[in-house]
């Protein structure tokens, strides 16, 4: 219990989570989606912004990378004073920023780290430099409690084709060997019109999350939301497997409650 001496109000522990990621001006993905997810799940959200994008529901028009020194300062300000019960990383556009993030995570002994390896756009474009992708794989993934690649990102990490459920099993096992405590391969782009299947592997056993597809195009930010939800549940004290299960349930509900916005793919309904 914690007592606020100014108000006299006593409350339970304040759970905290830090997102190290890019800003989406359209408010559908990135830092904005993470903060909505944290708030919806009862966690105080904090940020270290790595990139500022000019983005709408259809595409990214422009992106400006924040200097690594500023990213360092943001992370240090948060972790040095408030701390974080969990940390989630999203878009880390260059090797300097990845190095800064890794150094801070090690310095502050962050154990509940969720890595969303934002490397490939929905259209298949590489969002980070090849050297940054290598740094992410070699330096950041080994620190992760869980890493959450989609099919394209799993392919970029492993260097093998990932297009079927069997491929997902092989990729999850290979990514686990890099050093992450667990892997959640997202199968939303599998060619299955009826179901969406994600695969979780903790080094000992596999678990498939297979849910009926929701008939909507409004899924912008679903990957960010899933990773942020896992971080939120870890921050609240859930063990890893349960955090993933609860996050999957939350995201499925948020997609069911998504809404149209703009001329492209709208956002999830985080506060359903």
Structure description:
- Helix content is 38%, strand content 21%.
- By secondary structure, it is α/β, with parallel strands linked by helices.
- The strands form three sheets. It has a six-stranded mixed beta sheet with strand order 5-4-3-6-7-8. It has a three-stranded antiparallel beta sheet with strand order 9-10-11, with helices on both faces.
- Helix 1 links the parallel strand 3 (16-24) and strand 4.
- The radius of gyration is 18 Å and the shape is globular.
- The mean pLDDT is 93.
Which properties best describe this structure?
single chain, 272 residues, alpha/beta, UDP-N-acetylmuramoyl-L-alanine:D-glutamate ligase, 6-stranded mixed beta sheet, 3-stranded antiparallel beta sheet, 8 helices, 11 strands, 38% helix
Largest sheet composition: 6 strands, mixed
What's the arrangement of strands in the largest beta sheet? 5-4-3-6-7-8
**CATH architectural designation:** 3-Layer(aba) Sandwich
The poorly predicted ranges are none
- Helices, by number, come to 8
How many strands in all?
Answer: 11
**Mean of all residue-level pLDDT scores:** 93
Q: Assign the CATH superfamily.
A: Ribokinase
CATH class: Alpha Beta
Run of helices and strands: EEEHEEHEHEHEHHEEEHH
Sum up the overall morphology in one term: globular
CATH structural fold name:
UDP-N-acetylmuramoyl-L-alanine:D-glutamate ligase
**Rg result:** 18 Å
* Distance N to C terminus: 28 Å
